[in-house]
Specification:
By secondary structure, the chain is of the alpha/beta class. It contains 10 helices and 18 strands. The strands form 4 sheets. Strands 3, 5, 6, 9, 10, 17 and 18 form a 7-stranded mixed β-sheet that branches. The structure holds zinc ion (ZN) (2 copies). The site of one zinc ion has 8 residues, from helix 2.
């Protein structure tokens, strides 16, 4: 099969990659669309030390199992379901887990991917592939309200106007009235304004130490220090960004202002599919470009260019 493979920070197209061998609880999914995410770009820079087939945002058709022949999306954490963490209800934190396209498990930038059957969700017919491919990042945005009780009158700042920042803004604005997205790119902020969400430039005079919640989606190491200047005392910073490498930060403000820091990763697929089905979250304006899988290396380069939001890979085009 065809696949986009990361090996020692080098991304290559492999036209003769062996087809994946499904584990005992896994089924093969024929991928139709996959999305390039900031995490893929960080993996290429060395985050997680991953090697193998990249890609964890996808939609496809199950080739076997109870959903054979149906369109599916797949949760990315492959848990053991036997350890104490899994049994306590936290399979996404299973210490024995693999993660599709991120940790010890080949991903979705390929014609075929092996996915645990229990990770699969059937895609409602009304959701086209171009929309369903956003299920994973939309679920990640829904992890914020899954972790925090957000009140309608909370003042929320969403730092970052990129792929994930846009989706988080839409999810947060569906819950709270006062959401401000702060970014660096007028065109990306324009997309968010068009959805009825307030925006500001990072260079603007922003209300300091005033936000109840700051969500950090910048993908940059300067995001957390900036968030600290915006959050109010006793407020909460939600960290969605994963940045390769080690950052340094003056931690004292967390103590002095009693700021809560919440790490936030993968979220509920059922809520994401429901939101996409009912048009609660608009994803198609984010699609900046699309490439055939055979040109996947170019797709990854395109996704790294300034101003580019979601780049899709099409397997069948
Ligand atoms: Zn991702
Ligand atoms: Zn486990």
């Amino acid at each position: 099969m065809r696949a986009i493979v990361l090996q020692q920070s080098d991304v290559q197209f492999d036209s003769v990659r062996p087809t994946p061998t499904p584990g005992p609880d896994e089924v093969i999914v024929r991928v139709t669309r996959a999305g390039v995410c900031e995490t893929d770009l960080q993996l290429i820079k060395g985050y997680m030390g991953f090697h193998g087939v990249l890609g964890h945002e996808f939609v496809g058709v199950a080739e076997s199992g109870p959903y054979a022949g149906r369109r599916v999306v797949g949760e990315i954490n492959c848990a053991c379901w036997m350890c104490a963490t899994c049994r306590s209800g936290l399979p996404t934190h299973c210490p024995n887990r693999t993660v599709l396209g991120i940790l010890n498990h080949d991903g979705a930038f390929a014609d075929l991917i092996a996915v645990p059957q229990r990770n699969l969700h059937v895609v409602p017919d009304s959701i086209p592939d171009d929309v369903a491919v956003f299920t994973e990042p939309v679920a990640a945005a829904f992890q914020i309200p899954a972790q925090l009780a957000i009140r309608k009158n909370d003042r929320i700042i969403d730092l970052g106007d990129g792929r994930l920042g846009n989706l988080c803004a839409q999810v947060l604005a569906s819950i709270a009235d006062d959401v401000l997205v702060v970014g660096k790119h007028p065109e990306k902020l324009g997309l968010i304004e068009a959805l009825g969400v307030k925006t500001a430039m990072l260079s603007d005079d922003l209300p300091r130490r005033a936000a109840d919640i700051v969500v950090e989606c910048t993908g940059s190491e300067s995001g957390l220090p900036t968030a600290l200047t915006l959050v109010r005392p006793r407020g909460t910073i939600v960290l969605k960004t994963t940045v390769a490498g080690t950052q340094t930060l003056a931690w004292a403000p967390f103590v002095i202002d009693e700021v809560t820091l919440v790490g936030s990763r993968c979220g509920p697929f059922d809520r994401a599919l429901e939101a996409l089905e009912h048009g609660l979250v608009e994803v198609q304006p984010l699609i900046a470009d699309r490439f055939n899988l055979s040109n996947g290396v170019m797709a990854l380069q395109r996704a790294q260019q300034k101003g580019v939001l979601k780049v899709l890979l099409e397997m069948d085009a």
